[in-house]
Design brief:
Shape: globular
Number of strands: 12
Radius of gyration: 18 Å
CATH topology of the largest domain: Rossmann fold
Bound molecules: S-adenosylmethionine
Order of helices and strands: EEEEEHEHEHEHEHEHEEHHH
């Protein structure tokens, strides 16, 4: 008889953990940059784990990928050129390409192995990779942004791993400064900003670094993500110009399917909890 097997991610500092029961480990490798594992779980489909941290599951990735893309794309007045830094599982790319205004979407992940494994174990996330507007680059996103010319992009989506290892340099003022320099007039950056319950210090530092880099307007959105620490995640948008309004009519009239995002979810995600308002005051 098979013993029950559990994958567990412990959260140091929060003294908590999240576990998923799995049938088998489908793959494990040490890439040039990180340790990658793929599990076939009992209840969440396939699960990708990088350096011991849950990244993507078949069952619940839609929360994250939709909320990393649609709110910022419906906030920018006319998003045509989008870069995704990280995002190697291609789920964010797929959501971005649902917007017909987008003419070019470039995914820049440091680790080609993440994408090659996503193609095998998460083919549904990779189904837009051959869209003629999509480009996949496999280099360091920090260097990509540093080398970019001014006014080369409208939206930068930072869909990265946690701020350790290769992603550490994606969470500091120097990187945000380089992003500011290559964004167009109404340019916006959105970055996954971890859990407000567990990582408020990181969110505060990130927002401070974004402001110091020149972004005058900030907005943190909240959404559920049960496989990530605390089950409650956030994304922070940094804008060169006002973020006070999003294109509500376009959002309400979106011409594509989503599983979580809609205009009411967008409005609700902007509501700021009391402890969060106090922490950023
Ligand atoms: N949704 C996930 C989360 O919040 O846990 C992120 C998933 S995505 C697979 C993260 C990607 O960021 C990985 O594929 C990793 O290779 C990539 N990454 C980390 N550091 C990077 C860097 N400096 N430049 C480009 N990509 C990077």
């Amino acid at each position: 008889m098979n013993e029950t097997q559990w994958f567990t991610e412990e959260v140091p500092g929060a003294e908590s953990a999240f576990s998923l029961k799995y049938k088998k480990k489908l793959h494990e490798e040490q890439s040039e940059f990180q340790h990658i594992e793929i599990y076939e779980t009992e209840g969440f489909g396939n699960l990708m784990v990088i350096d011991g941290c849950t990244m993507v599951s078949t069952r619940d990735n839609f929360f994250y990928h939709e909320m990393m893309s649609h709110p910022v794309l419906f906030t920018h007045p006319d998003p045509k050129r989008v870069w995704i830094i990280g995002g190697g599982d291609c789920g964010t790319l797929k959501e971005v390409l649902k917007h017909r205004s987008v003419e070019q979407a470039v995914q820049i992940d440091i680790d080609e192995r993440v994408t090659r494994l996503a193609e095998i174990y998460f083919p549904e996330l990779c189904e837009s990779n051959n869209d003629p507007r999509a480009e996949l680059k496999f280099i360091d996103g920090i260097k990509w942004v540093k080398d970019a010319a001014p006014n080369s992009v409208d939206i930068i989506i930072v869909d990265s791993t946690d701020p350790i290892g290769p992603a550490e340099g994606l969470f500091n003022e120097a990187f945000y400064h380089d992003c500011f320099a290559c964004l167009s007039e109404h340019g916006m950056l959105v970055q996954q900003s971890e859990s407000a319950l567990y990582h408020m210090k990181l969110i505060g530092e990130m927002r401070h670094a974004m402001s110091s880099a020149g972004f005058a307007h900030l907005q943190t959105l909240f959404f559920p993500q049960c496989i990530y620490p605390s089950g409650w995640w956030s994304a922070t948008i940094a804008g060169k110009t006002s973020l006070n309004q999003f294109r509500e009519l376009d959002s309400a009239d979106k011409r594509f399917d989503t599983t979580y995002y809609n205009v009411d979810i967008h409005r609700a995600a902007l509501a700021q909890p009391e402890f969060f308002k106090r922490a950023i005051a």
